[in-house]
Amino acid sequence: MPTPRSSNKNLLVGVALIALVIGLGTAGYVGAGWKLSDAFYMVVITIFSVGYGEVHPIDTPWLHFLTVSLIVLGCTGMIFMTGALVQFLTAAELQRFLGIKRMKNEIEQLKAHVIVCGFGRIGNMLARELKEGKTSFLIVERAEGRIAEARGLGYLAIQGEATDEGVLRDAGVTRARVLATVLPDDAANVFITLSARSLNKALHIIARGEVPTTEGKLLQAGADEVVLPTHIGAERIAELILFPKTAALIRNDERMRGLERSLHSLGLNLEVLPAAEGSKFANQSIEQVERQAGGAFLIVAINRTDGSTVTRPPPSTQIEAGDGVVLIGRSGRSAAVESFRASSG
Predict the structure, then answer these.
(1) Cα angle value 327/330/332 (rounded, 5°)
(2) Residues of the chain with CATH 3.30.70.1450
(3) Mind giving me the DSSP string for 268-301?
(4) pLDDT in tens, 123-132
(5) Cα angle value 176/137/153 (rounded, 5°)
(6) What is the pLDDT of residues 212-253, one digit of tens each?
């Protein structure tokens, strides 16, 4: 099967060969005393086998040799370049077809995955958080440019309207564990929620709302959680998906909410962050991480990938890639916290 690289190379060779033949042929006729325009015209109609007739009489041995050579080399070059062009177009289309087929196969194999409807600012951030948390997910987006961006980042993505039940079925909504609709359109989010709930009664639906009054509509439509970006960001949605038990413990318990408000008044936040593969969190002990952080935050619990939670972990507790790290840190996501989230590679 031709590859895009070999097809590109063959096409460039073909173009270079034709350019060389045209240049040498034109120079040959000019050397025989022809004008440049006449020489170039003769070369072109000869190479392309048009057969309009000779511009000037071919009446010397040199012109006979030049014309015969031009016919042989020019026609050969054109055949080669035409074949290379067909190969280039076929290889590109074949690669596109195989890529789409491979993606469909991967989507069909997804189970208990997360569907993210919308790949705008929040959708992009959410996808990053889910990837760091080693959770299988799929993007549904209608804009071609954003689909290309998502696939460029290595995400599974389907182009289409998430309000279309057929698109949701293609995304495996009946097999999915969670659907997060984060479009900046409340009406669309309500409709997606209704459609998803009708297709999968057990699906956990998290919906974004732009206007506070939309919260009730989304809940009536079947949403389990409603996120208002003015109050909660993409990190909050990721908490609900990646670490539902820990998130519920932190956010839903009245005593914990009171503690969180008290911490906030002191300029501190209680957060749950995924330990990404290759980050400074992964494969280190709590003691090592806190020492490197220089007091920027304290780790108070670890949410393991198997769903268990280690509360009051000793300093020697090892953090594994994919774990949820519950920490108390300075408000505003300090540079120190962000540096520990980022991959060290």
Answers:
(1) 110
(2) 243-345
(3) EEEEEEE--TTBSSTTEEHHHHHHHHTTSEEEEE
(4) 998 898 888 8
(5) 160
(6) 788 889 999 999 888 877 555 555 566 556 666 666 655 555
Question: Any idea what DSSP says for residue 10?
Answer: H
Under a CB-based contact definition with an 8 Å cutoff, are residues 272 and 325 in contact? yes
Give ranges for CATH 3.40.50.720 in the chain: 110-242
Distances (CA, A) of 201 to 109, 170, 172, 177, 205: 21, 17, 14, 11, 10
Q: What's the predicted TM-score (pTM) here?
A: 0.51
Size of the chain in residues:
345
Which CATH number does the domain 243-345 belong to among 3.40.50.140, 1.20.1050.10, 1.10.3720.10, 3.30.70.1450? 3.30.70.1450
First-to-last C-alpha distance (Å) of the chain: 34
Report the b/e string of 153-175 with b at 16+ CB within 10 A.
eebbbbbbbbbebebbebbbbeb
